[in-house]
Amino acid sequence: MPALLRFGQRGVQLLAFCGDDLDEANALFKRLVELRKRRSATIRDVLGVKNMWHVGPSPQWPLTVLIIDEAHTYFREYKGSDATTKRLAALTAENTRLVEDLVKKGRSVGILVILISQKTTGDAIPTFIRDVCPIGLSFAQKTVEAAVAALGDDIRNWPDASPVTLQDPAYVGVAVMAMQGRPGYTRIRTPYVSDADAARVAEDTSHLTADPDLCLDALLASTGRTTAPRPSLAK
To answer: Quick one: what percent of the chain has pLDDT higher than 90?
Structure first.
């Protein structure tokens, strides 16, 4: 289920959410690629840098995060000759292309993608997308092969850190993390958040929304540049 978050002065804001409808997800991916292109084309003029992280996010240029849960749903290959199957195959192929663009080109302009799947093998997340993600994270795995798919082949050399050792109930919420340029692996524990707490926070902050496209329009206008208004990402 793709969800779009904005990290700004008021904290984390959910701007858009899709279920497992491929058309809705495709439309959201397209909008984000257009935002990525606009940011790439204007970042030097309005921020004075080619990489947003040199100055950090701001209310006008917020960190925007796309979370794709059950990622295999949006990339799976459909095989068949009937019209419906052909349309779905074309749609998932385009989803793959759009998400590849965001993963490879979005970080420098403040757009991050988080891909989540129960098993991150190549048939779930295309390897040309998965293997350029700078951070890998894996909760408990049953097999070394599954651990390798999530964290890379080097996990074989670190058996004590492998997520296959996290089967005990004491390790619920514990994950193994790999980062590019950093040797070895790190274990992290994620806090438990109850459904009631999640619902309360969502309700209390539901009015705190801002469209990153409109933020960019305002920023460009303030610097003397003009740009056509963009449709809202909020739903």
So the answer is: 59
